[in-house]
Amino acid sequence: MTRASLDKQPNEVAAMFxxxxxxxxxxxxxxxxxxARLWRREVARAVDARPGERVLDLAAGTGTxxxxxxxxxxxxxxxxxxLGMLRxxxxxxxxxxxxxxxxxxxPFADDAFDAVTxxxxxxxxxxxxxxxxxxxxxTKSGGRVVICEFSHPTWExxxxxxxxxxxxxxxxxxxxxxxxxxxxxxxxxxxxxxPDQPGLARRLQDAGWEKVAWRDxxxxxxxxxxxxxx
Length: 230
Fold this sequence. Notes:
By secondary structure, the protein is α/β, with parallel strands linked by helices. It has nine helices and seven strands, in the order H-H-H-E-H-E-H-E-E-H-E-H-H-H-E-E.
């Protein structure tokens, strides 16, 4: 897979992430110019995991995004459909309950979690709306969802510079630091094809989430969306 499509085949996407698992975190740090760590901190603040809570971290990959929730005292389940990512995560954090699962058919009971979060993964799910409904199904009434995803810069001149970086600078950088640079061509194109902030907010509302709001990070390169289960 080298070109973006919102009709993604799950097996192709999973295979793509299997190939980049070993160097995925360091590649993201390089390609984001160090911003990835800042974004993870903001996600942790938004989720606000507390002792005794249950948190589901979807598209958790190697578990890097899950550690802050567990450190805060919440029982945290890192879930991903890439077995390669899960194996790499289990090597690094053997104590965490890594779970294989498809975001559109989650292997969890109704009302199982106080919070569900997904960072930079919703864009790669083949049926976004089904995933949003599944997240709602497994979240307790009053519980929350936090979605961190690439979005659309809000300042037009910066948006043009950003788009040029994605399509021209990112592939050669990925060639130097990634084990599968074609995957990052796909990722760059999928970012351009993704809905803007109001568009994703509407999809959350249509899926049944309430009090939906978002906050831009890094000038809108990334947006944090949040909603609550009725």
